[in-house]
Amino acid sequence: MKRWLSWTLGVVFVVGAWLVALATPPEDAREAPFTVTASVGEEATGRDIVATVEGLRRADTVTDGAWSAEGNWLVVDLSISSRVSPRTLAHATLQIGDRTFAATERADGSLYQQGLTAGVPRSGSIAFELPADLDAETAVLRLATLSDVRLDSVVEAAVPLSEIERSGEAELRPREWARP
Amino acid sequence: MTTPEPPARRRASPFSRLRAAADRVPTKWFAAIGTGLFLAATAAFGGLATAAAEPVPELEVGETHTGPLYALSVDRAFLFDELAEAGAYPAEGQRVLALRITVENVWTSPEGFSGMRETLSVAVPGAELTSMARIDDATTNPRLQPGVPAELAVAWLVPDDALAGGDEVTVTVSDPTLRTGQAVTSGQWWDDPVPSARVTLPVEYRPGDE
After folding, report:
1. Among candidates B51, B50, B61, B52, which has minimal Cα distance to B197?
2. Is residue A52 a part of any domain in this protein?
3. Is the pLDDT of residue B163 over 50?
4. Is the distance from CB of B61 to CB of B201 less than 8 angstroms?
5. Domains of chain B: which residue ranges?
C-alpha cells in the first residue's frame, strides 16, 4: 500500500471514530421521556396527559385557605386531565439551569399529587418555592402523570421567569373539576 | 535489586554487560526480599493493629456543617412524650427525641427524608429515626428544594430510660455519596454516609406538647 494512502486511511478512520462517538446518544436516551412542548395558554396532549398552562404568577407570599408562606414563589395555574386511565399529577418540576425544583407539597389545596380522570379536566394551581437570591431568566416546566417519566409523555413549557411581574401575594386557584 | 546500567561508551556491547550483571543477581532471593519489604512496609504503617479512626471535628451548637447534600446546623434538642405534629408516634415505653435543625439543600435536585437518614444520627442506644417535619407549617417529611433553607424538627423514637432532661446527646453529621443507577437500576440516590462532624448538646425535656 502506498505510504500516502495508509496515512489518509488512518486519518479518515480516526475522524470517523470521533464522529461516531459524537453522534452516539447518551446511555439513558433509550428510556428518555417523549416531550410535548407547549406554550402558555395552549393545550398539550401526550400519551396519557392533556394539560394547559393557563397562567404564571410570581409572589412573595402564597396563600391557600388558612395556609400561607413567604418566599420566592412561582404559581402555575393549570387545567389538566389524563387521557386513557386514572392517573396522578405526580411529576411537576421546574428546571432552572442545572437545578431541578419540585412543586411544593406544603399547600394542601394545590393540584400536585392529585388524582386525574381520563377526559375530565381538573383546574387549579401548583406552586414552586425558589431560592430567594434566584437570578435566572428562564425555566422549563415539566408535567407528567407518573412519577417515573421514563418512556412516558412529558408536557414541557418554557417559563420566562424574568418577564413575570412579582406581586406581594398570590392565592392558589381553588381546585375544581371542569364544568362543560 | 536493580543493576546500574553500564556506560554505553565502552567498547563491549552494553547489552552483553547488562546481561552479565543480571546473571549474577541471585533470583532465588527475590521472593524473600519482596516478602521482607512487604512486612517492613506493613510494620511501618502500624502492622495489624487497629488503625486509629480519624478524629471527627466537633461543631458548636448552631454552627453550620456543609456537606455534599445538606448544609445544616443542629440548634436544639428536645425530649417529648409524643410529637404527632412531626409524625412521631412512640409505642409503649418509648419517647421522642427531636432535634431542631436549620437545613439547606445544596445539591441540584429536591431531596427529603431519605437523604436526612444518611446525614443525621444520634448516639442513643435503641434510637430509631422516624420522621421529620417543618417547624413553620408542620409539613411532614417535606422535600427540600435546592437553595431554599428550612427549619425542621427531626424525630427519633428512643427507649423511655435512654435519656432524661438535662442529659447530653451527641449528634453525628455525615457526608453521604451520590449514587447514579446503571444497567438495571435507575435514578440517583444518596448512600454510604461518612461521619464528618459531631455536635454535643443538652436535651430539654418537654413533658406536654410543644
Report:
1. B61
2. yes
3. yes
4. yes
5. 14-44, 65-206
Closest by Cα among A33, A156, A145, A157 to A91: A145
Taking residues A124-134, what's their average pLDDT? 95
- B89 contact partners, CB below 8 Å, separation of at least 6: B82, B130
CATH assignment of the domain containing A146: 2.60.40.1240
B18, three cell numbers: 547488562
DSSP state of B1: -
Nearest chain A CA: its distance from B69 CA (Å): 13
SS3 B15: helix
pLDDT in tens, B58-69: 999 999 999 999
* Counted domains in chain A: 1
> Which domain covers residue A59, as residue numbers?
31-177
Inform me whether the C-beta atom of residue A165 falls under 8 Å from chain B C-beta atoms: no
**pLDDT the model gives residue B9:** 53
Residue to substitute from B139, B145, B151, B185, interface A, most A β-carbons within 10 A: B145
Report whether pLDDT(B210) > 50: no
Assess if residue A64 is contained within a domain: yes
> For A39-86, where are the E strands, in sequence order?
43-45, 50-64, 67-81
B130: β partners: none
CB A78 within 8 A of CB A111: yes
User: Picking from A125-129, B24-28, B67-71, which range would have the lowest pLDDT averaged per residue?
Assistant: B24-28
Query: What's the CA gap between B52 and B65, in Å, rounded?
Result: 23
Burial class (CB in 10 A: 0-12, 13-18, 19+), B82: middle
At B137, which amino acid appears? D
Distance CA B111, CA A112 (A): 17
Query: What is the predicted ipTM?
Result: 0.87
A106 to chain B: nearest residue by CA?
Answer: B139
In a domain, A99, yes or no: yes
Among the partner residues B137, B142, B145, nearest to A101 by beta-carbon distance: B145
Domain B65-206 in CATH 2.60.40? The answer is yes
CB within 8 Å: B148 and A71: yes
